[in-house]
Specification:
Chain lengths: 265, 324
């Protein structure tokens, strides 16, 4: 080793925040390549939900499996995106426990870049999972009446929902010590909130107190708007209502995330 | 190593403090690390080594005191400090799912290298660190020594002004340790200031020009290894007993003869005690033998760093583990 590479001082111009975020996004893509199992997790749960609910409960809940699929599919998209967002929180927690985050933090980079990278990974996950569920729905007979523009609009809303909820789990990932705790904690909160919505069942069929809760649940608003966008009946009011929660979450939790990241504990 | 005149130091810390609840993990440490040197922080488990390094690397905000790294103030301008340093933490900070090469490319891209330059830089570092063959393997499948080397390589994407190495060879076998030592020396030879922590006296002795001994968050001694040895005393008598059960008896006898309590190493039944002169040591040994305590081995000489360390921290019996 006469002229070791490490002795050479090359210092490129510092990259912009956007370039940093893209690099972290590239990392997220590499993870898909090296850990394809995560895609399996990601997609199997919603597929199972779709098949199970459509064929087991569909007839009882909506009279026919076809009618039920038409009702259920937009909701399962919302549910999938929210569940998938948990994985970013887990990934973040893993990075912290492995000390990787310390390395990132000791680099002179834009401090939100690692989070932006996680979000890029999220977006990819949401698109992949959403695409697969929609595909299966189409095979089973689901018909989005609003056609391609409706589907595109629905996916934009879907990404907005994923983005908003993503921050919740990033915060959990920063606060909790082990990745499995992120998972169990998040799901124990998510399950009741997601199930007590209009994703699977019409609220009219529920007891009064529950119906009131379901109608006030922002997840119901999102699901209603998804149904509307896919069938072409959405009103502007519905879409705004659907965006309220994700926007509020992002606005409130982004600074919290930064504060926690810089907290230095 | 070149003899750079002691102008402004690479690291200058005054009264650094970090508390975790009631515990002052770092309790007022001053440090002056000259440029281009290897400086070792030596201390037992829980001494505060990691906490000190994490503060200097901007990962922890000090609760008191101040410090500059290459002239940049730690609290006023942490981003400038980050641009001038690199940290290899106590535990490998790598993405286990990615390959060795991808880990390096990721960091090179974050530093701003173009796609092509990042790849070239990664290849060069992999070659230098003997990792070319493992470049396309996931880090998961790396051995401890390979991880450590990759981890250090990851800190050298851009040659830092100051490199922090937190226990760089803990858990490595002797061959892997030698490799890492060689790398550290080469780095220092190329002008990088290195602040490393270690629990191994031998490591500090081998690598570092200056050593600070830290215990309970405080610096209890500092100097070259020779100075530290001199601080404790020049002559040491070291006696290993054939019969370990007579250790107490022998310790009492030596204490009476030489006027100082021997330090003891229970594992290999060895006693170490300061002796003013060879004649005194000789007399003490004679007294042992006269009492029927047979030494299986004895030596007289300058204290090893281990002995210095025990003398400074209160001996191996006063370890920190119990209080953690
Ligand atoms: N984040 C933390 N929260 C609470 N206590 C901490 C934290 N980090 C360190 N400590 C405590 O501070 C003290 C110093 O810890 P530190 O990790 O700096 O020691 P060290 O010298 O690096 O030890 P080791 O050789 O085991 O790595 C220990 O008692 C430890 O338990
Ligand atoms: Mg440590």
């Amino acid at each position: 080793m006469t002229d070791p590479a490490f002795a050479r001082t090359t210092r490129p111009a510092p990259p912009g925040p956007f370039a940093n975020a893209l690099t972290f996004g590239w990392r997220a893509v590499l993870k898909f390549k090296h850990v394809p199992e995560q895609l399996f997790d990601l997609v199997m749960t919603p597929i199972m939900f779709t098949l199970l609910f459509t064929f087991v409960f569909g007839g009882a809940l909506a009279g026919s499996t076809g009618d039920y699929l038409q009702y259920f599919l937009p909701g399962i998209l919302v549910q999938t995106v929210i569940f998938n967002a948990v994985y970013s929180g887990m990934g973040l927690c893993t990075d912290i426990t492995k000390g990787l985050f310390d390395r990132f933090r000791s680099l002179p980079i834009w401090s939100l870049a690692p989070f932006a990278g996680l979000i890029v990974g999220d977006v990819l996950r949401h698109l992949i999972a959403g695409g697969i569920i929609l595909g299966i729905g189409l095979i089973l007979g689901y018909r989005p009446e609003a056609g391609v523009p409706g589907v595109l609009a629905a996916f934009v809303l879907l990404l907005a929902i994923g983005f908003g909820f993503g921050w919740v789990f990033l915060v959990v990932g920063l606060l909790v010590r082990t990745p499995t705790t992120v998972l169990t904690l998040s799901f124990s909160v998510l399950f009741p909130v997601v199930f007590a919505s209009n994703i699977m069942v019409q609220p009219e069929t529920m007891p009064g107190w529950l119906e009131a809760f379901v109608r006030a649940n922002p997840i119901s608003w999102m699901t209603t708007a998804m149904r509307g966008l896919l069938s072409g009946t959405a009103t502007a009011g519905e879409v705004v209502a659907a965006l309220a929660a994700p926007a509020a979450l992002a606005l409130v939790l982004m600074p919290v995330t930064l504060r926690l990241y810089r907290r230095n504990a | 190593m070149s003899d750079i005149p002691p102008t402004d130091p690479a690291i200058r810390a005054r009264g650094l403090i970090k508390r975790f609840g009631d515990l002052a993990a770092v309790d007022g440490i001053d440090l002056d690390v000259p440029r281009g040197e290897i400086f070792a922080i030596l201390g037992p488990n829980g001494a505060g080594k990691t906490t000190l390094i994490r503060m200097l690397a901007t990962l922890l905000t000090p609760d008191g005191g101040e410090a500059t790294v290459l002239g940049h103030d730690l609290t006023a301008d942490p981003q400038a400090v980050r641009g001038a340093i690199a940290l290899t933490g106590q535990f490998a900070s790598l993405d286990e799912d990615l390959t060795g090469r991808e880990n390096l490319i990721l960091l090179a891209r974050l530093w701003g290298f173009s796609r092509r330059d990042a790849r070239a830089r990664a290849e060069a570092l992999l070659a230098d660190f003997d990792l070319a063959d493992a470049a396309t393997r996931q880090v998961k499948a790396y051995s401890g020594g390979m991880r450590r080397r990759l981890d250090i390589a990851a800190s050298l994407i851009v040659t830092p002004g100051v490199l922090f190495l937190d226990e760089p060879t803990t858990g490595l076998d002797p061959t892997a340790r030698q490799k890492v030592w060689r790398l550290i020396r080469q780095l220092a030879g190329s002008g990088v200031t290195i602040l490393l922590t270690t629990q191994y006296l031998e490591e500090a002795d081998q690598l570092a020009r200056r050593i600070a001994v830290v215990d309970h968050g405080r610096k209890i001694a500092e100097g070259t290894s020779r100075e530290l040895k001199a601080q404790v005393g020049e002559g040491f008598l070291s006696v290993t007993l054939a019969d370990a059960s007579r250790l107490d008896e022998a310790a009492d006898l030596l204490a009476a003869q030489l006027g100082a309590r021997p330090g003891r190493n229970a594992e290999d039944s060895r006693l170490t005690v300061r002796a003013g002169s060879a004649a005194e040591a000789n007399a003490a040994l004679a007294a042992l033998i006269a009492a029927g305590i047979e030494p299986s081995d004895f030596s007289m000489g300058a204290p090893s760093l281990e002995e210095v360390f025990f003398a400074l921290t209160g001996g191996p019996g006063a370890g920190r583990e119990a209080t953690e």
